[in-house]
Amino acid sequence: MGARLTRAIRNFNLENRAHVEIGKQKPSSAPRHPSSKGLIEQQLNSHPEVHEVHDKNEELLSLLKDVYVDSKDIPATRLVTAKTSKKVQEHRLLKSALNYELYNITTVPKGKLSIPEVLIILNNHKLQPKVWTIDKIAEDYSLDLKDVVGLLEFFKPFEIKVLPPTQNTTERLAAM
User: Fold this and answer.
1) Model confidence over 110-133: pLDDT tens digits?
2) What is the pTM of this model?
3) Interacting residues of 131 by C-beta distance below 8 A, sequence separation 6+
4) Cβ–Cβ < 8 Å for 83, 76
5) Are 94 and 100 in contact (CB under 8 A)?
């Protein structure tokens, strides 16, 4: 919300301010000290190649005239279809009774899940595996079967494993 306000203030009367800046007189260089005038002339006389930088090189200009650039714009129809194809996705409504407004989630594309939905699916499957089968989850949430199998097999946030202490750790604890 604050970003919109600051952007509006920053962009207020921007074009007019830009024209004022462009129209200002450019600062001229500071006057040279009279004692350095002789040194500058001496440097210019000893290094004549400095003047070559400011002179036009006719050979390079003739080569530049031979360059031909042909550019083709992308047709406007192709641009429109590329932009709209990204926006046109099938979305589905959320399934759960959780308050999704906290997460700012309104719709989810088909084949995708939100984090709260993943947690609900895992909890339901763990509590009632006969009711919440892989086929039912895939159908209800518009998912592929292989994705559901992978989700249930590899994503296990509720599973806690307590590893038995090894002999080295028990010796360290006894030494303390």
Assistant:
1) 888 888 888 889 989 989 999 999
2) 0.40
3) 124
4) no
5) yes
